[in-house]
Design a protein that fits this description.
Helices cover 46% and strands 18% of the residues. It is an alpha/beta fold and 331 residues long. The strands form 2 sheets. It has a 7-stranded mixed β-sheet, sandwiched between helices. Strands 6, 7, 8, 9, 10, 11 and 14 form a 7-stranded mixed β-sheet that branches. Helix 6 crosses helix 7 and helix 9 packs parallel to helix 10. The radius of gyration is 24 Å and the shape is elongated.
């Protein structure tokens, strides 16, 4: 009988050991839910960003999705984040329309253990990290250098931002104006920053107003993805392609036709898909208890050697496009 109990006991030990090795741990098999919240749904820029978030989900086996309000409105973004907190998502990546308006709800998310990553919001506080594709001041100064070259370094110009509360857009323009004042004294800013609310139609209407108010206007810088396109349409309609230069942030899929006609001279951008992927990858590292360090390689072009300053992660990821090289990009 004793021998039988020893055999039974031995079998039990074997079964337990086998279970330890053959059954995955809860932590290893745990699937996270990664949400990405953008300024505005249905915009080509954020459609492209969604591709990166979905690619991250496919590669890691996590659930990823992207959503945004039907119009650029901070209150609507706050409501979306509140809903995500109630859903107990694992992380929230967000491109805030007005960073200060999101601070309280993002703090609530962090208090619930949700990893929070922002983009285009280097001044935001209640996040684990903010991701910037590049140094915003260098990007803005680069716009001014492009515009000055197109305008012969003289004449009147105007600037457009998605919102006066958009941190990145205003950092671009701060640097552009500083560059003009320092290097191009014969150029003149004709008006205060014009807001487009990330809306191509509003950008078009504001551009027409400026062109009528300032008949000698020689150039524009547009910061929101829709700005150069709205400006370009106004210029094309008024037959000013050879008189007025346009540079700014956009995508070939949206601005390509105007690059072809010369209504837009040059666009610059960073790949939103890469940012979508990187934000979720950073969130995954936070959830795994891993730190982010200066010089880290995040595994995406332009983010192979990041700079970390406080909470702000900066890559080297901008791309310049003109009519001559636009066929290299399919987004």
């Amino acid at each position: 009988m004793k021998k039988n109990w020893l055999i039974i006991g031995g079998l039990a030990v074997i079964i337990i050991v086998a279970a330890i090795f053959l059954i995955p741990s809860q932590k290893a098999s745990e699937q996270h839910k990664f949400a990405t919240v953008v300024k505005l749904s249905g915009l080509a820029w954020f459609d492209r960003m969604e591709k990166g978030t979905l690619r991250f989900g496919e590669e890691t086996g996590n659930e990823t999705f992207l959503l945004g309000p039907p119009k650029a409105d901070a209150a609507l973004q706050v409501q979306i984040v509140e809903d995500l907190i109630a859903q107990k998502v694992s992380s929230i990546a967000i491109v805030p329309f007005a960073p200060e308006a999101l601070e309280p709800v993002l703090q609530r998310a962090m208090d619930q253990g949700i990893a929070v990553i922002s983009h285009e919001a280097s001044n935001i506080n209640n996040v684990n990290y903010d991701v910037e594709a590049f140094d915003n001041a260098a990007y803005g100064a680069h716009f001014m250098d492009q515009l000055a070259d197109l305008m012969g370094a003289k004449g009147e110009y105007a600037v457009m931002v998605g919102s006066l509360t958009s941190k990145s857009h205003n950092e671009f323009i701060d640097a552009a104006i500083a560059r003009q004042q320092e290097v191009y004294p014969d150029m003149k800013l004709v008006a205060e920053r014009v807001e487009s609310y990330d809306d191509q139609k509003i950008a078009y209407e504001r551009a027409k107003e400026l062109l009528k108010a300032y008949p000698n206007l020689g150039g524009f810088i547009g910061c929101a993805m829709t700005d150069p396109v709205g400006i370009g349409l106004a210029i094309e309609e008024m037959g000013l392609q050879d008189k007025t230069a346009v540079v700014g942030t956009s995508l070939v899929s949206v601005a390509g036709a105007y690059l072809e006609t010369g209504a837009i001279d040059a666009i610059s951008f960073w790949d939103p898909a890469d940012v979508g992927y990187v934000m979720n990858a950073i969130a995954a590292r936070i959830l795994a208890g891993e730190a982010i360090a200066d010089g880290d390689n995040l595994g995406v072009p332009g983010y192979e050697q990041i700079t970390l300053n406080g909470k702000v992660i900066t890559g080297q990821a901008w791309i310049d496009v003109t009519k001559e090289n636009m066929d290299q990009y399919d987004f």
